[in-house]
Every structure is written in C-alpha cells, then in structure tokens.
Amino acid sequence: MATALNRTRPVVYASRSYASGPKQMTVREALNTAIDEEMSADPKVFLMGEEVGEYQGAYKISKGLLDKYGPGRVIDTPITEAGFAGIGVGAAYHGLKPIIEFMTFNFSLQAIDHIINSAAKSNYMSAGQISVPIVFRGPNGAAAGVGAQHSQCFAAWYGACPGLKVLVPYSSEDARGLLKAAIRDPDPVVFLENELLYGQSFPVSEEALDSSFSLPIGKAKIEREGKDVTIVTYARMVDYSLQAAEILAKEGISAEVINLRSIRPLDRSAINASVRKTSRLVTVEEGFPQHGVGAEICMSVIEESFDSLDAPVERIAGADIPMPYAANLERMALPQIDDIIRAAKRTCYRSAPKAAAA
Amino acid sequence: MAAWFTRSGNIAHHVKRNMGSFLRPAPTLSDSSWSRSPACLGNSPALLWAGRLESTRAQKLVDSDSENDAPLRDDDQAIDFPGGRVMLTSEMQFIPGYPQQRVHCYHLMNNDGQTNMCSSFEQVSKEVAVKMYSDMITLQIMDTIFYEAQRQGRISFYLTSVGEEAINIASAAALSPDDIVMAQYREPGVLLWRGFTLQEFANQCFGNKADCGKGRQMPIHYGSKKLNYFTVSSPLATQLPQAVGAAYSLKMDNKDACVVAYFGDGSTSEGDFHASLNFAAVMEAPVIFLCRNNGWAISTPTSEQFRSDGIVVKGPAYGIQSIRVDGNDALAVHNAVRAARQMAIHEQRPILVEALTYRVGHHSTSDDSTKYRPVDEVKHWEMGQNPVNRFRKWVERNGWWSEEDESQLRSSIRKQLLQAIQVAEKMEKPPLADLFSDVYDVPPSILFEQEQQLRETIKRHPQDYPSDVPV
What CDD domains does the record point to (chain A) (predicted)? Predict the structure, then answer.
C-alpha cells in the first residue's frame, strides 16, 4: 500500500531525488500522474468508469486516485457504457470536466451515440451555447490474444467525425503531455491508449515532469530524422517503425519516422513537409485498411505534394479480418517490422515481394 | 408488491439532510444498512458519497453495528446475502408481472374544472393560474399556425404538443428558473413559460440569422442557455443520462436546483432510459424523470411498447420513488411536480413522474395518424378530455377569466404569431461564417482553409451563390 501511495504523488517530487540522467517512466505512470495532477489543479475534473475506483482501474491507470480524491470524484459506475458516457456528457454540459474511461474502446461502441451525437456535435448544434469539455479514454487496438471484440483500432472511425479531437500517444511523454492537454481542452477528446504500451518504460525530460507540462494538440513529432523515405505512423506502430528504420539504415536507407500523436486534427503540414523532403511515403497502422488513417494521409499528400512523390504511397495496415485469437494468426493479422521494411524498400525501388509468405 | 414500497420507504428515510448541511445524521433503525459515515471526511461534498461507498462494504457489518437489529442466529428466518438481509419463505410465490390493480393516478380536477373538496393541495395563485392558462392557449395557437406554415411549405418540419398542454405548462410552472430542463421534443411549452418569445420560436423554425441556434438545426430543436433549456437532441432518451450528469454537477456545486428530464413512453424502451434511472438512484442525483405517456410512439401503441403497468412501476425497480398523475389535469401535474422538486433537491434523489395523457396530433408533419388509429379515438380525447378546456373552467370558476379575456388573448396571440412568421420568413439566413464556427472551441486551421477556399469560389462564381444568404 505504501508503494502505491508513493506512486500517486506527482513525480516532480521523486525526480528531485535523482542526481542526473533522464527519468524513466512507464506509460501507466505517465497517465496516472497526468490525471492526478489535473484533478489536483482543477476541482471540476473527475474520473468515471468501470472499476476505476476500488479496483484501482482495470489496468491500474487510476491507482491511488480513489483514496486521494474520494468517491465523489473517482466514480465506479454500473455496467453501462451508454449510461456513463451520457452522464459524462451531461455533466460536461453543466461545466464539469469528466474523464470517462472505457475498459477498452471496443466497448465504446455501446456508447457511440453519446460520443458522436451528444459530445461531438453539441457545440455546433447549439451554436456555441453548449460546450462539452470531456475526455473519453481507454485502451485501443490490439492487445495480445484477446480476439476480435477486444482488438479493433478505432482511430479511423473517431478520426472521421468533426467536433471530436482524437489523440494517439506513443511514449510516456506523449501520454502525459497529450492527456493533460486533452483534459484542459474545451472540446471533446477521444484519447486512444494501448494496453501493450502501458507497461513500457520511456525516458522523460525534466520539462515533462512538471505539472504544468502539456503538448500541443494537432502537432506530430519527428521521432527519427531521415532523408530517403517518410514513415508516418502512430501508437504502438511507432515502435515497430523505429525498429524498421534501424534495420533500413544498415542497408543504406535513411527513414524519417513521424509519430502522429494526433489523428484529428491531423498534422498535414508536418507530413507534407517531410514527403517533400524525402519524396517517398509509407503509412503504418494497426487498424483495418479500408477507410483507414493511411488512406486519409495518402489523399492529403496527393492533394498537396503530388509532384514531390517519386513512388506510389505504400499503406501498411492490419489484415481485413476480425482479429483471430490464435497467437500465430494474430501475428499474421498485424503489421510486422518486416512488412514496414519491405514497403520502404519498394518505395526506394529496391524490389521486394509484397506478400510475406511469397 | 409490498416489498417494493417498503424499500422505497426506507430510501425516504435514509437521507435526511438539513438545509445547506451535508453532515449525515446518526444511524436510525430504518437506515441500518446506509448509515455509516466515516468521520474522517469532514464537511465536504465527498461526505455525500460516504454512505454510497460504505454501503457496499457495510453489508458485512449490517448486523454487527446496528443496535436495533436482532443478531442473526437462525438460518431459517433470514440470510445476509450481498445486497442485504432477506427474509426466507417456504411458500413459492412469483411476483405478478402485471398487478391486479394498476397504480392509481393522482387527479384533482374533473372535466368541469371542479376539484374534490376533500383533496388538499397547495393553491395556485391567480397570477400563476392566469399565466398558466394564457400560455396553454398560446401553445395551442402556436402549434396550429406553425403546423399550417409547414403544410404551406414555408417551414420544412413541425411537431405539435396538442393534448399535452397541461403537462408542458403546469410542470414548467412548478419549477424555478434555475432548474435545468432537458427536453425530448414535445415540450416547447416549458420554454414558452420561461420567456422564449414567439419571434424566437419562429426564428428557429425558419433557421434565419436571428436564430440563437444559428440555423444549425431543423425546426422544433429549440435551445436556450439563458433560460436553462438545453438544445433539443434528436436521438430518443439521449437526454436522460445527460440529465443525470447535469444533476450530478448541480449536486457537486451544492445548488438549490434540480434537473427535469422529459421523455415519452416510447423512449422508455431505449437502453439509455434504464441506464439513467439506475445510475441516478445509485448516484443520488437530484433529477426528475418526467414521462409523457401519451399512448403512442408514432404508430406504436403502448401495448406494443412494453407490457408493464405503464412507466410508473419501473421507478421502484431502480429504487426510485415514483408517482402516476393525470397529465390532462393541470393542477395535479403542477402539484406533483412541485412535490417532486422538493424531494429531489432536499433529499438529493431522483423522482419519476408518469403523466398519463393522449397525443391528439400526429407524431409530426411527416406522419398521418389516421393510417393507424381511428379518428373517433382522437376525437374522444380532443373533445372529451381536453386539458386546456378543463383548466379554463377551473380558472373561470375562480372568477379569474372571462369570455372577453379569451377572445382578446386568442386574437392577440394569433396576430403576434402571424407577424412573427412574416418577420422570420423575410429575415436573412445566417452568414457563411456561421458554417464553420462552433465545430470546435477554436476553429482549426483546416476549417479556416476550407472557408477561404469557399469564399474564393464564391468570388469567382457569384452568379451561382444564393442571393438571400449573406457572406
């Protein structure tokens, strides 16, 4: 219990005891401290969802928060996504700032009417009279062996809807900065996390540890600079893309990896600036290919930088099937590092077959 | 059946709050399972929740703590399951799904406007009664004229509240301006009562530049932040969980106000209805769920909508105190809503009010109800159980209204409405800039670019741009 309580204090204190070197922080800690600090700074912020309180969060993201803020601000809900999403919107209508946690975004489908028709459209439909400063967050995309109804990536679905902001953090710094920005934002934000990233550790800067830290919404980050091909991706695929870039570098291809951080608004200027530099583009996402994020990015590049392209845009996405359970099948249904490498090579005219098994 | 009412009796006792104070009283016999208030939390809103948090843990302590309950020794009598102690019985009895006798309907005034001498209720003052009646007439005339305007092709859509004027106006009159209204769509009378002008109604229906909704929504989707009436949303029952959330916000702010969520019989089939009632009870939110059970959901009669004894019986299923009231009786509606409001705010709990009535009009201008129900039935309600006529008789009996007042008011309202429509129709539509605003708090660059592109296109091809839409 003592360790848990220690963890809930803002990490700022912990960092002062380190002599030097970047602090390591897991994405889980990043999210926990971000919520903690924002709840501490603004009494209107509260957290609501299944198991967020007594259970400390289905994935322990809200560990310690119930003890610190009480059941009035960390609310365990009955099992009704439609119910608590709608309640969150109503609370936001009247000036509170709810953070609604979905155990996974797959379950957000039971609440999607409230996310789209209530949250996203209210400010517009009411002509600015009703604003909805709400954050919907939770794990999104594939985990490991959880099957079709627990593995879908919803970035493209929510990204299509005007009125929403859709964020996709990768590292701990992304998680902290973007979640803080989302909580402070007056618009409804869909915050797509990833279960497999929760336990991963990343170095975080001093600046990121400060409680006033936040990242701008709508700005991508260039994770690795390069000059031969642009790889645009988000969330867990950033990790795969960076690993692919390492391998490509050894073969003489310098890949620039862009971590989108935000699906809506999409940082089209960063993507296009990079493509105008490299002339080649590969998009990588876990989600289904049709109407995916990559399709939108490709169109944006055609609209703005067509003349710069030296090769067709390559789109890497998950397989067009509901996610299978068996581990070997699951692996084949998701993009792997090899797929990214082959795609990058194809854009560089280094011929490589498209199919992995060919 | 008896079990239900015992439970709701317990709830009535369990949270007695002093005005302005949130300290829980000492445990009493009737709130044995709810009474543990952790002393550590002090005088803060968090204390409100102490009982809720504790009640789940408290089940284990339920007998050991209360001095008035007999210690459990005999497994033949009762068992402490999670959720509380239940008495055992060796007689197998299924609770009937439908009662032998339906829940009674609260009713004060008959069709001749006479009240029962035995019934006691808080009197409505002359001023309030005259305003109520005038607003009911205004609503009737507004409905008639806007409906005709739609038929003439001047507005695209309309939906009337004919037959439900008492529910609209009498309930509104029982509320304070601070109470938040989350309506479905057949409650413009509430907005009217609060001061929305005929011109404002017309502006919204015509979607012109004076519409405070900036022409964003189809007709009858009114909203006014100033009057605490949230903009109408089309999905049914969507306003119910929102109402609970807004009520929670009022609770956290410790406000002397509640939320009133209106909805029809059809909406009670939606998942949102069940989630909201359940949640409101668990969160102890100050919200009045007011159901207009008018017998029809477009062409679906209530017999095909649910098989329970109406809506009122669903309240106790969620732990909510409920009442059934004659929706065509303005005095009964007024009194019931006033009482409901007191309970919702002072006891911090949800209340369910089922107002029985009849939808005299078609569902909307897109519906022709003669296709699915007999005209005789409609006539019976329109003539025989008319809420406006009934209230008029009561007001006249008190000497507060005359024939002359009636004809003066009717012609005045009619004139004002026709004038409002003329003005609204002629007024310019909202400007182009309003197309892109309010999607987000601050317009993102991509919308700004789209607006620039559109303006350039208009400049290049002015002949293709409509003349009555300002740039």
Answer: TPP_PYR_E1-PDHc-beta_like (cd07036)
Cα–Cα distance for residue pair B146/B165, rounded to 1 Å: 16
Name the residue range of residue B370's domain. Answer: 104-426
Query: Can you tell me the mean pLDDT for B408-424?
Result: 97
Q: Does A258 touch chain B (CB under 8 A)?
A: no
Contacts of B230 in chain A (CB under 8 A): 93, 126, 130
What pLDDT, in 10s, does the model give residues B317-349?
Answer: 999 999 999 999 999 999 999 999 999 999 999
A283 lies in the same domain as A237 = yes
The residues of B assigned a catalytic role are 148, 234, 363-364
Asked if residues B115 and B394 have their Cβ atoms less than 8 Å apart, the reply is: yes
Pairing relationship of beta strands A165-167 and A135-139 according to DSSP bridges: unpaired
Identity at A326, one-letter amino acid code: A
Distance from CA of A133 to the nearest CA of B (A): 10
For the stretch B287-311, pLDDT in tens is 999 999 999 999 999 999 999 999 9
Please indicate, yes or no, whether residues B110 and B20 belong to a single structural domain of this protein: no
Buried b (16+ CB within 10 A) or exposed e, B248-258: bbbbbeebebb
Element (H, E) at B271: helix B271-283
**Domain total in chain B:** 3
Local confidence band at A356 (pLDDT 50, 70, 90 cut-offs): low
Q: Is A299 on the interface with B (CB under 8 A)?
A: no
How far off is chain B from A43, nearest CA to CA, in Å?
10
Is A79 at the interface with chain B, CB within 8 A?
no
What sign does the dihedral A91-A95-A101-A106 (CA atoms) show?
positive
Domain-located, residue A230: yes
Question: Does residue B360 sit in the same domain as residue B322?
Answer: yes
Cross-chain Cβ contact B216/A125 below 8 Å:
yes
Q: What is the DSSP letter of B115?
A: B
Number of domains in chain A: 2
Domain with A236, as residue range(s), is 2-17+219-347
- For residue A76, give the chain B residue with the closest CA: B53
Residues of A in contact with B276 (CB under 8 A): 83, 86-87
**Which of the four pLDDT bands, split at 50, 70 and 90, describes residue A273?**
very high
Q: Count of A–B CB contacts within 8 Å?
A: 162
- Name, in order, each residue with C-beta under 8 angstroms of A20's C-beta and a sequence gap of 6 or more: none
Over residues A170-180, the pLDDT tens digits come to 999 999 999 99
Tell if the CB–CB gap between A87 and B238 is shorter than 8 Å.
no
Contacts of B380 (CB under 8 A, 6+ apart): none
Mean per-residue pLDDT for B253-266?
A: 96
Chain centre to alpha carbon of residue B10: 26
Intra-chain end-to-end CA distance of chain B, in Å:
64
Nearest residue in A to B430, CA atom = A127
Q: What is the pLDDT of residues A214-223, one digit of tens each?
A: 999 999 999 9
- pLDDT tens figures, B437-462: 999 999 998 899 999 999 999 999 99
Question: Tell me, what's the ipTM?
Answer: 0.78
Report if residue B470 sits inside a domain: no
Nearest CA distance, B180 vs chain A (angstrom): 9
Chain B contact for A109 (CB, 8 A cutoff): no
For residues B322 and B352, the answer to whether their CB atoms sit within 8 Å is yes
